[in-house]
Fold this sequence. Notes:
The protein has 15 helices and ten strands. It has helices at 20-23, 41-51, 60-63, 70-87, 114-133, 156-177, 201-209, 223-227, 233-242, 270-281, 305-331, 333-342, 358-366, 371-374, 381-392, and strands at 16-19, 55-59, 93-95, 138-142, 147-148, 182-186, 195-196, 217-219, 250-251, 293-295. α9 (233-242) packs parallel to α10 (270-281). The radius of gyration is 23 Å and the shape is globular. The mean pLDDT is 97. The protein binds D-gluconic acid (GCO) and manganese (II) ion (MN) (2 copies). One manganese (II) ion (MN) binds next to loops. D-gluconic acid is lined by residues 95, 140, 142, 186, 188, 222, 250, 260, 296.
Amino acid sequence: MSPDRYDPDPSCGDRFTFGLWTVGNPGADPFGGPVRPRLEPEALLEGLAAAGAYGVNLHDNDLIPFGATAGERDRIVAGFRKALESTGLKVPMATTNLFSHAVFRDGAFSSSDAQVRAFAVRKAMAAMELGVELGAETIVFWGGREGSETDACRDPRDAIRWMRECFDFLTSWVQDQGWSLRFALEAKPNEPRGDIYLATTGHMLHFIETLEHAEMVGVNPEVAHENMPGLSMVHGVAQAMEADKLFHIDLNGQKIGRYDQDLRFGSEDLKGAFFLVRLLEGTGGYPAYSGPRHFDAHAYRTEDVAGVWDFAKGCMRTYKILAHRAKAFDLNSEVQEILRFNRRAEKEVGELLKSYSSAGLEAIQKLDLDPEILADRGHRYERLDQLAMEYLMGLHHE
Ligand code: GCO
Ligand code: MN
Ligand code: MN
């Protein structure tokens, strides 16, 4: 395929990132082992740079094996930094693996064993030191083991309180270091635990408001995690944006109701992906999301290494194509007309609802609001949605 304007190019402002664990995924699943060689981090960086990515994100143990000595760690980090320099890739986000080792089998920050919680906090601090060394500004927390199979094990209120204590401890520690890091908490309803605490972005947004340094903490919503239980990623992300809490994002594809598939972005629910990109790019109004567009997905198990790079390019191209289509959709005069048609009485009536006052109350009571008249017309969303679909299907190019 010859290059076109949908190919990613960081020198033109594209900021796409992938996890080391995503393009490095060797294709193992619960029913079978790896099908691809495990590429070294340096080889992954070269592949990502060639594919047009802006940066790479990592778990501590994607780079440094669990239990490595300080000397080993420093040697590995030095090699990785060299590869970053030669490829020009950035590391905007770092995260901590608080799920693979058996010590976390019953949770990390929510473990009933305070020693495990302390170990998890210590591991997270070391991962943040690594992140800072590599230039990361955002630290993602995905509590894969923070949950239960049987609620006989603990009162979930204890779990939530212990998680709060750990986050409060860590944000205070970050402030003590004088760093300006931000935390992005990632929700998931289940898998690997039967049920994971703080199951959705909405649960997370409330939890964050109970934290000591809530201003440092936002969310990292993931398409798959919102779609697994059939929720709307667009609504979750919009709520986060409205609260200035969208600190990071995990883009991928997912069929509703399945295990976490981590498919190539846009390869499922293309319409959901279109409205998500429209929201992130701000083509329908409001400023665009300013952070990197991160993909937390991996290639099909059918693929060899070449297929991994097809996968990575596909994620970025789909995003750019959708961004282009969304922009064109929002410039369409019929689209604008339908939106205007439905958005009525903003000034005269909307203003009265903005805040309560006795004068406002009186004015509201006096309004001539006849429900029969207000109900007496359709909203033209069939036409609006068909237009969205036609843009999505490639009609009306510009
Ligand atoms: C998953 C999660 C993870 C996290 C990652 C970053 O379902 O496995 O999405 O991939 O995003 O651990 O913290
Ligand atoms: Mn996931
Ligand atoms: Mn994720």
